Amino acid sequence: MALWKCSKCGATKDARCKPRKCPECGEAGTMVKEEAQAETSQKKGCGSKRSCKKKAS
Ligand SMILES: [Zn+2]
Questions:
Q1: Structural domains in the chain, sorted by start
Q2: In what order do the strands lie in the sheet with 12-15?
């Protein structure tokens, strides 16, 4: 599943497909994909992006 966020009111919604309109404010076309979940699955032992630097042994 992907997390979608309304760019107008900030409401979020879990859905496989992009919601046609926001469940909160009802505005159409404002739902944008949040990449948080995709990042989580790609994380490989890194606590955070900023502290993730290449360690040259
Ligand atoms: Zn909204």
A1: 2-42 (2.20.28)
A2: 12-15, 2-6, 31-34
